[in-house]
C-alpha cells in the first residue's frame, strides 16, 4: 500500500509503552475472536477472560511500535477521507471519525480492559477503536495473513463498526441480542461482522490509487484466515455454525468483495439478505 505522502490522522491516541510483565497463557485465536464479540456489546472487563498477566509500564515504545503507529495513523486518514465523502454523498449525513487508540501491552477502554490477547476491537461506549501494536505480527506470523494491506483491512474493519454505530445499527443489534437466545445472538453478530467486511470493501475500492499489485489478494486472504470455520479447523475442532460470530471464510471474503465491487453502502445490508 502506497502511504508515502499520506498525513497522519490527528485522531490517534498513543498510550504508554510495552509492559514489563511476560505474556502467559491466553485463549488462542478462536478465543480471541470470541472475546471480540463480548467487547462490542458489553461493558465488562475482557482482560480477565484472556488469562495471563500483563504489566502496563511507562516503557518507551520500540521502533516496531513506532512504525506500527505511523502506519495505523496514515491508514486511519484514508478511512476519514473515504467515509467523509461517502456519508454526504450516499447517506446525506456528516461523518464524525472515531479515535484510534494505539497501545502496547494493556490499556482500558469504555468496554473494559484491552490487551494484545483480545485483538483489535471497536468500543461503541467511547467510540474508539483499539489496536495493540503487536497484532500485525500475530496477523502475519500466527494467522498467515501478512502484508500491509491485510493490516490496513483490519483497521478499516474496526472503523466500519464505527460507521455502523453512527448509523444506529450497533445499538439496534445490541437490543436484539439481549432478547435472543445464544445461537440467535451469534447469528445477529455474524450479520453485523459481514456488514463491516462489506463496508471495508467499500473503503478498499475508494483507495485503489494507493493499492499495489497483490494488495486486494492480501485483504481477501486475511478475511478468509479469520473466518470462523477456518479458525475452528485450525484449533482442531469441527466447525460448529451455531457458535459462529464472524462468518465463514467464504462469507467474509465474499462480502468484502461485494463492497469492493459495488462501492455502495446499500449493497452491504446483510440483515436484509436471505442468504449470507
Tell me briefly what this model is.
This protein is of the alpha/beta class and 276 residues long. 51% of the residues lie in helices and 9% in strands.
How would you describe this structure to a colleague?
The chain is α/β, with parallel strands linked by helices and 276 residues long. The protein is built from 10 helices and 6 strands. It has one domain (12-272). The protein has helices at residues 28-41, 47-50, 63-91, 135-141, 148-166, 169-178, 182-206, 215-225, 228-234, 249-262, and strands at 12-15, 99-103, 106-109, 112-115, 121-123, 128-132. A 4-stranded mixed beta sheet has the order 1-2-6-5. The protein has a two-stranded antiparallel sheet with strand order 3-4. Strand 3 (106-109) and strand 4 form a beta hairpin. Helix 3 (63-91) crosses helix 5, helix 6 packs antiparallel against helix 7 and helix 7 (182-206) packs parallel to helix 10. The longest helix is centred in the N-terminal third of the chain and has 29 residues, at 63-91. The protein is globular. Mean pLDDT is 80; it is low at 18-61.
Task: Provide the descriptors you would attach to this structure in a database record.
four-stranded mixed sheet, 276 residues, alpha/beta, 10 helices, 6 strands, 9% strand, 51% helix, globular, two-stranded antiparallel ribbon
Amino acid at each position: 500500500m502506497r502511504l508515502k505522502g499520506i498525513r497522519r490522522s490527528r485522531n490517534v491516541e498513543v498510550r504508554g509503552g510495552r509492559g514489563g510483565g511476560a505474556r502467559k497463557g491466553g485463549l488462542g485465536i478462536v478465543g480471541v475472536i470470541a472475546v471480540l464479540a463480548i467487547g462490542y456489546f458489553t461493558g465488562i472487563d475482557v482482560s480477565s477472560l484472556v488469562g495471563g498477566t500483563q504489566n502496563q509500564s511507562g516503557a518507551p515504545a520500540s521502533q516496531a511500535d513506532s512504525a506500527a503507529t505511523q502506519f495505523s495513523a496514515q491508514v486511519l486518514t484514508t478511512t476519514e477521507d473515504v467515509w467523509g465523502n461517502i456519508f454526504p454523498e450516499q447517506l446525506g449525513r456528516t461523518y464524525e471519525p472515531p479515535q484510534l487508540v494505539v497501545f502496547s501491552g494493556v490499556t482500558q477502554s469504555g468496554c473494559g480492559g484491552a490487551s494484545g490477547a483480545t485483538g483489535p476491537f471497536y468500543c461503541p461506549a467511547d467510540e474508539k477503536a483499539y489496536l495493540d501494536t503487536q497484532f500485525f505480527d500475530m496477523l502475519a506470523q500466527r494467522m498467515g495473513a501478512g502484508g500491509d494491506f491485510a493490516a490496513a483491512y483490519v483497521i478499516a474493519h474496526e472503523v466500519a463498526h464505527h460507521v455502523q454505530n453512527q448509523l444506529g445499527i450497533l445499538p439496534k443489534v445490541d437490543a436484539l441480542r439481549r432478547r435472543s437466545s445464544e445461537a440467535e445472538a451469534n447469528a445477529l453478530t455474524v450479520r453485523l461482522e459481514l456488514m463491516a467486511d462489506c463496508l471495508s470493501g467499500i473503503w478498499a475500492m475508494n483507495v485503489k490509487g494507493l493499492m499495489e499489485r497483490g494488495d486486494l489478494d492480501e485483504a481477501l486472504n486475511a478475511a478468509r484466515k479469520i473466518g470462523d470455520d477456518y479458525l475452528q479447523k485450525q484449533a482442531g475442532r469441527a466447525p460448529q455454525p451455531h457458535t459462529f460470530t464472524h462468518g465463514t471464510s467464504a462469507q467474509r471474503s465474499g462480502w468484502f468483495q461485494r463492497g469492493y465491487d459495488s462501492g455502495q453502502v446499500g449493497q452491504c445490508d446483510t440483515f436484509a439478505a436471505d442468504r449470507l
